[in-house]
């Protein structure tokens, strides 16, 4: 049995250590008595693929974890726990020896072995047309040495202190299906029709893109039986419709409860409401790279602009100072969000304790615009989703109004989520609002801020092509620091440099809101998730 010393996992590096049993991870409810019948969830999360390696996004991670397993999984505090791996040891700073679980089979009956791990990690960087590849989590692996069918050694190109957490994000598929396309996965996995075959507690019986996912408990699952025998995830993007489905009994539980509906659900004895904090940030990204940006121009009737004002840090800071985060949190969002200062709330390890949410200061914002040469403002379009996050269109409108008071001419364009991310990834926007969730404090800067470097897995979600050599160097230094305490100090410095540069603009951290039949209990998760692992009968 391998062993972990959790207090300073990496500093004690070469020593053999233990992966504890799994109390409080994503599958914490496993082992309870299977409930007869079906759990039906009404969710705003729109799953758009069954390919576990196509898109590193909220809906995919929420649903795929029921079907697939990774070598590790992360608990609610993002500590790595055993899944398809039962343990590991750090042989050297560049070699991780990982023991694989025996007696595991895929839904099609094939035995799980080291060959499946190798084939999965080889597939990850090569999935075509991905809006956000998973290669950021396998980037450090140079090669995998197969010692025997249930023991591997991961040789890394450089020290990677967060390898177990990284590998928790990558779901394992059968080696025989490693060449399957995303379209093959989207066929499902029933009766050999498609490639959606995992080792997880549920298998797919039906999937209709944008409508529903039907699952049933897998008889071959290696772990304790899941609570629910069958699960239905119904995509209900409309907030009023989702509420109506709960009230009429068509679904058992819902996510993303609008703040305005919480009081009446709390007063209805038929239901219970639940909430929890998140490690997700609602943020604004600016096109600060190009000299000419597609949705930036002079205001109507004024001489043409010279260049792109968003390239000037003073302009970016001015637009951030003009956002009244406290007012958005208390008035627009009815207290369901918390103003943000960085990617994750400062209660999480590795975050900066110095950063505070930027104060609303329109006078300083106007002064900075004038210093940058834009006293008369300019014309800008702010893009946002209109159907993905609670009040996403309203939030964009509120921010646009405060920018207008600075003298800018602002247009708001809300785009369907199915279109938004593809366009953002191909730099169709000058400024946009989105959300990003992370399990580790350095992941956000690594993915969103670092210069795009596909060969090393940096900048995988850098949709603005932001580039700053000094920040890149800080990120790279923190990424390979094996001493946990030193790494936390470096990561905090990265976050402070990102905000100083205004490389992205944090607005708020959402708090997740759920409602369910009174007989059920919903356990929130820091990331944007809503699945059968989070819902169980009350004791």
What is the helix tally? 15
Q: Which whole number gives the mean pLDDT?
A: 91
Instruction: Count every beta strand, where a strand is a DSSP E run of 2 or more residues.
Output: 21
Structural class: alpha+beta
Describe what this molecule looks like in 3D.
The chain has 539 residues and is α+β, with helices and mostly antiparallel strands. The chain has 15 helices and 21 strands. The strands form 4 sheets. Strands 1, 8, 9, 10, 11, 12, 13, 14, 15, 16, 17, 18 and 19 form a 13-stranded mixed β-sheet that branches. A 4-stranded antiparallel β-sheet has the order 4-5-7-6, with helices on one face. Helix 8 (313-321) packs antiparallel against helix 10 and helix 14 runs antiparallel to helix 15. The radius of gyration is 23 Å and the shape is globular. The model is unreliable at 1-25 and 28-33 (pLDDT under 50).
Structure keywords:
four-stranded antiparallel beta sheet; 15 helices; disordered N terminus; 13-stranded mixed beta sheet; single chain; 24% helix; 539 residues; alpha+beta
Record the SSE blueprint:
Elements: E1 35-43, H1 58-67, E2 72-74, E3 80-82, E4 85-92, E5 95-100, H2 114-123, H3 135-138, E6 141-148, E7 151-156, H4 163-167, H5 182-185, E8 202-208, E9 212-217, E10 228-235, H6 239-247, E11 253-254, H7 262-266, E12 271-277, E13 280-286, E14 296-297, H8 313-321, H9 325-332, E15 337-339, H10 362-371, E16 379-385, H11 392-404, E17 409-415, H12 417-425, E18 431-437, H13 443-449, H14 469-479, H15 484-501, E19 505-517, E20 520-522, E21 535-537
Parallel strand pairs: 1-10, 1-11, 16-17, 16-18
Antiparallel strand pairs: 2-3, 4-5, 5-7, 6-7, 8-9, 9-10, 11-19, 12-19, 13-18, 13-19, 14-16, 15-19, 20-21
Helix pairs in contact: 8-10, 14-15
């Amino acid at each position: 049995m391998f062993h972990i010393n959790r207090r300073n996992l990496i500093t004690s590096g070469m020593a053999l250590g233990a992966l504890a049993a799994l109390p409080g991870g994503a599958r914490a409810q496993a082992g309870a008595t299977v409930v007869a019948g079906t759990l039906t969830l009404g969710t705003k999360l729109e799953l758009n693929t069954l390919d576990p390696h196509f898109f590193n996004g909220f809906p995919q991670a929420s649903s795929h974890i029921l079907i697939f397993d990774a070598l590790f999984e992360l608990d609610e505090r993002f500590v790595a726990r055993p899944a398809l791996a039962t343990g590991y040891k750090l042989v050297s700073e560049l070699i991780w020896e990982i023991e694989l679980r025996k007696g595991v089979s895929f839904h099609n009956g094939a035995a799980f072995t080291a060959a499946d791990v190798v084939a999965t990690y080889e597939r990850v960087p090569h999935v075509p047309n991905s809006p956000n590849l998973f290669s950021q989590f396998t980037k450090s692996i140079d090669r995998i040495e197969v010692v025997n069918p249930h023991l591997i050694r991961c040789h890394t190109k450089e020290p990677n202190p967060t390898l177990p957490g990284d590998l928790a994000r990558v779901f394992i598929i059968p080696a025989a299906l490693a060449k399957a396309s995303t379209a093959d996965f989207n066929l499902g996995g029933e009766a050999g029709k498609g490639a959606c075959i995992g080792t997880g507690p549920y298998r797919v019986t039906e999937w209709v893109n944008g409508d529903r996912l039907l699952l049933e408990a897998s008889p071959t699952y290696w772990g304790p039986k899941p609570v629910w025998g069958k699960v239905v995830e119904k995509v209900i993007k409309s907030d009023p419709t989702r509420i109506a489905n709960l009230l009429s009994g068509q679904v058992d539980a819902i996510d993303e409860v609008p703040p305005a509906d919480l009081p009446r659900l709390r007063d209805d004895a038929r239901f219970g409401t639940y909430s929890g904090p998140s490690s997700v940030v609602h943020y604004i990204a600016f096109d600060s790279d190009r000299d000419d940006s597609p949705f930036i121009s002079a205001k109507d009737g004024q001489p043409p602009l010279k260049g792109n004002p968003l390239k000037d840090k003073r302009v970016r800071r001015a637009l951030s100072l003009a956002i009244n985060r406290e007012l958005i949190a208390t008035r627009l969002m009815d207290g369901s969000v918390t103003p943000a200062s960085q990617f994750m709330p400062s209660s999480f390890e590795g975050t900066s304790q110095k950063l505070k949410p930027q104060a609303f200061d329109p006078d300083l914002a106007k002064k900075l615009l004038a210093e940058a040469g834009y006293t008369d403002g300019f014309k800008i379009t702010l893009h946002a989703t209109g159907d993905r996050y609670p009040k996403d269109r309203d939030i964009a409108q509120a921010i646009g109004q405060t920018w207008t008071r600075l003298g800018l001419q602002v247009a708001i364009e809300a785009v369907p989520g199915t279109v938004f991310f593809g366009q953002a990834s191909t730099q169709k926007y000058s400024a946009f609002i989105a959300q990003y969730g992370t399990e580790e404090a350095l992941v956000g800067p690594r993915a969103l801020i670092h210069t795009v470097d596909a060969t090393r897995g940096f900048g995988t979600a850098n949709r603005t092509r932001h580039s700053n050599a000094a920040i890149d160097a800080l990120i790279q230094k923190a990424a390979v620091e094996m001493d946990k305490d030193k790494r936390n100090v470096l990561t905090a410095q990265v976050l402070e440099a990102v905000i100083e540069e205004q490389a992205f603009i944090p607005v708020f951290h959402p708090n997740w809101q759920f409602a369910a039949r009174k007989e059920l209990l919903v356990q929130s998760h820091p990331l944007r998730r809503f699945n059968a692992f989070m819902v169980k009968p009350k004791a």
